[in-house]
């Protein structure tokens, strides 16, 4: 396992040493999966999105999201919501419970659940509220503070330049930009030109995000001048992508089937510790993800999902990943 960078590392130095960043992924970047990610990266990892209102009300499930482990760092706790005072309180509560490397304000998520709170991408349409949130979060902590944004609500309302300048003025340490608009969701081409503009404009590090899943995509995004590259959806199926990209290799078939099986068994132990018998459904999901590039993956998926028996499921996984085909 690769050791995590120290808590005191300067953010610019951290990104220079390891430009690859693990994105906040709901239901993915939990404690168990972060332990797997830590085998392949020493860089920044973002937690799942955490509701500031849930933290403020001390809801057990929400508070559990911010219970970090020593190997997590350098880790950024990502917060979402609308009320600026709740952001202040959420940061303070987190620091009472854990010691993250820093915090992130979600201003880019297009999911309805988040939009209903007034947060996420809605803040792209409410710049004044975004500013109030940043001010209050900055007042609450001396730790690193980042904001994750999109280019704007749509192509007629691009606000990333304004948000970068605001972030700089309010003491934000880095801006993460998903180089699409809210309206584009996860479809269409990433706007590399906008990332170039952002990197030229910003006096703080810019972390680019969107569609990086292989060496060519990684190089293309780095060539825009960004300081870091955030990997999102690709980490679900290939958490080893960080090591693969460092070695300039495609993540597909980067690990042998035996190595994939060993990784799944580690994840099994981590998830069992967290969730008890409920671990099996999540393990099956990752087993299917990890099998994608192997011959017979479709048949394996069908067999695995045809049973609800834990022992049978584990046997199907073992037989598939330990076979020579």
Any overview of this molecule?
By secondary structure, this protein is of the alpha/beta class. It folds into two domains: 11-246, TIM Barrel (Alpha-Beta Barrel), CATH 3.20.20; 257-321. The chain is built from 16 helices and nine strands. It has helices at residues 11-17, 31-37, 52-56, 60-65, 84-97, 112-115, 127-140, 160-169, 192-201, 215-222, 234-237, 241-246, 257-275, 279-291, 297-305, 310-321; strands at 20-22, 45-46, 50-51, 75-80, 102-107, 144-150, 174-178, 206-209, 228-231. Strands 1, 2, 3, 4, 5, 6, 7, 8 and 9 form a nine-stranded parallel beta sheet that branches. Strand 8 (206-209), helix 10 (215-222) and strand 9 form a beta-alpha-beta unit. The chain is globular. The protein starts with 10 loop residues before the first helix and ends with a helix. The model is unreliable at 1-8 (pLDDT under 50).
Which key phrases capture this entry?
325 residues; alpha/beta; TIM Barrel; 2 domains; 9-stranded parallel beta sheet; 16 helices; globular; disordered N terminus; flavin adenine dinucleotide binding; nucleotide-binding; flavoprotein; RNA-binding; EC 1.3.1.-
């Amino acid at each position: 396992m690769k050791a995590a960078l120290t808590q005191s590392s300067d953010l610019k130095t951290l990104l220079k040493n390891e430009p690859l960043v693990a994105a906040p992924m709901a239901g993915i970047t939990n404690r168990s999966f972060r332990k797997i990610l830590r085998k392949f990266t020493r860089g920044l990892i973002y937690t799942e999105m955490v509701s500031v209102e849930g933290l403020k009300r001390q809801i057990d499930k929400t508070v559990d999201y911010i219970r970090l482990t020593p190997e997590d760092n350098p880790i950024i706790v990502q917060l979402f919501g609308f009320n600026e005072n709740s952001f202040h309180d959420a940061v303070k509560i987190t620091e009472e419970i854990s010691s993250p490397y820093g915090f992130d304000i979600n201003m880019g998520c297009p999911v309805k659940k988040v939009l209903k709170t007034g947060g996420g991408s809605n803040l792209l349409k409410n710049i004044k509220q975004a500013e109030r949130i940043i001010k209050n979060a900055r007042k609450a902590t001396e730790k690193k503070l980042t904001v994750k944004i999109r280019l704007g609500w749509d192509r007629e309302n691009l606000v990333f330049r304004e948000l970068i300048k605001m972030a700089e003025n309010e003491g934000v340490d880095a801006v993460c930009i998903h180089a699409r608009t809210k309206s584009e969701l996860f479809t269409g081409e990433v706007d590399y030109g906008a990332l170039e503009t952002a990197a030229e404009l910003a006096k703080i590090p810019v972390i680019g995000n969107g569609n990086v899943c292989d060496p060519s995509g990684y190089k293309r995004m780095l060539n825009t001048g960004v300081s870091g590259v955030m990997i999102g959806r690709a980490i679900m199926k290939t958490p080893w992508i960080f090591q693969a990209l460092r070695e300039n290799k495609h993540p597909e078939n980067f690990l042998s089937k035996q190595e994939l099986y060993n990784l799944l068994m580690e994840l099994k132990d981590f998830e069992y510790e967290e969730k008890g018998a409920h671990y099996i459904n999540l393990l099956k999901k990752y087993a299917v993800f990890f099998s994608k590039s192997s011959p017979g993956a479709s048949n394996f998926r069908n067999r695995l999902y045809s049973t609800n028996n834990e022992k049978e499921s584990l046997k199907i996984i073992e037989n598939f990943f330990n076979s020579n085909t």
